Amino acid sequence: MEKQRVHRPWLYGLLKTLDETFNQDFYADKVLEHHFKDHRNMGGRDRRFFAETFYEMVRWWRRLRYAAELPDAFEMGKISEADFRQVVTTWLLLRDFDLADFRDEGFAGSSARVKNRWADAPAGPIAESFPDWLWDKANQELGSDWPQLAHVSNTLAPIFLRVNRLKVPAAEVIKSLRESQIEVEEVPEHPEALRLVKRANVFQTSAFKQGWFEVQDLGSQSVAPLLQVEPGLRVADACAGAGGKTLHLAAMMGNKGKILALDVHDWKLKELRTRSTRAGADCIEVRLLDSAKVVKRLHGQMDRVLLDVPCSGSGVFRRNPDSKWKLSAAECDRLLATQAEILSAYAPMTKPGGKLVYATCSIFPSENRQQINKFLAAHSGSWELETEEILWPRQGGNDGFYAARLVRRG
């Protein structure tokens, strides 16, 4: 069987994007987005190959280094081009690409040796490609569940859409996407969700440009319903970001009532404005959290408050594999402090009798139920836990999420 050939632009494009991710500290998804903007002539098939290859190399970075016989220790921001070439070479040799034309350019190695090293990678953090400290932390927090969760975190994340019922029913979205040669399937337990049968660039479709759907994981789609919103309520999404859950809330409220989308990052709120216009969600008011006064003025005024707090992202490692390498123990500690501060400072926006949902895309109990327990202990009698939802990452299914609904008693 003839081996697959490698195109030079792919090869050097991978070196560049890996360097930007590991040495220049850019997020992998933004690196890929900029690469495709700079190479608009790439066809859909080439884009898919490049994106999947790039993410696989980031995801399996440690195990690839082991297979390439590179030193296990490395320092972010100081990885040599020779190391990148060896990692790229190793990945391509594992998949039987022909690198004969590139041996003189530093892309050389033994396919058999690489495959043997890959297969013999020690079980645990090397075989599953995690930093030691993160593997130990996950083991401590999740125990015997962690190895399987780690394995799932290294699988390819499926793509889900959320139908915008402010504009069209799901059947219209399905029909429109099929006309664009994109196949989707319904998800029985999630009436607003569609799953892509095959990965495709849905952002260029007419349906997306008309605001008929948003790309949103099933786990993320589970958070807004937990808030139990109704038309006419006053709702605060206090860590709104670019607004995926904000838009979901607006659709659930039928565009009736008011949603305050708050965030400390103005650039995220600008993106939310664009998205809300496209979605036809005009019940959303965007407000920058540039001082503590913004929150204090809202004390006791909101029927519902959503706190989708900053977190480790441990539930979405398969979607953001570079975060495994950029996260640190010190950052995890900082995030714990930030979560507690947000919960304490923003909860008073909720009216007596109103409800608050605390959510993360983390699977670590320290960021989830333990934070809720500390909050309840500090506000005994004033708040009550009504329910919580824990979603573990599932192969072919949702990412990992946590959400707890509290009701304010006084």
Describe the structure.
With 410 residues, the chain is α/β, with parallel strands linked by helices. It folds into three domains: 4-121, no CATH class; 160-215, Sun protein, domain 3 (Alpha-Beta Plaits, 2-Layer Sandwich); 218-408, Rossmann fold (3-Layer(aba) Sandwich), CATH 3.40.50. 42% of the residues lie in helices and 18% in strands. The chain has 18 helices and 13 strands. Strands 9-8-7-10-11-13-12 form a seven-stranded mixed β-sheet, with helices on both faces. A four-stranded antiparallel β-sheet has the order 4-5-3-6, covered by helices on one side. The chain has a two-stranded parallel ribbon with strand order 1-2. It is globular and about 70 Å long. The chain starts with a strand and ends with a strand. The model has no long low-confidence stretch (mean pLDDT 94).
Layout of helices and strands:
Elements: E1 4-5, H1 8-22, H2 28-38, H3 44-59, H4 61-67, H5 81-94, E2 97-98, H6 111-119, H7 132-142, H8 146-152, E3 160-163, H9 170-179, E4 184-187, E5 190-196, H10 206-209, E6 213-215, H11 218-221, H12 223-226, E7 234-237, H13 244-252, E8 258-263, H14 266-279, E9 284-288, H15 292-296, E10 302-308, H16 323-326, H17 329-346, E11 350-360, H18 369-378, E12 383-391, E13 401-408
Parallel strand pairs: 1-2, 7-8, 7-10, 8-9, 10-11
Antiparallel strand pairs: 3-5, 3-6, 4-5, 11-13, 12-13
Helix pairs in contact: 1-2, 1-3, 1-5, 4-5, 4-6
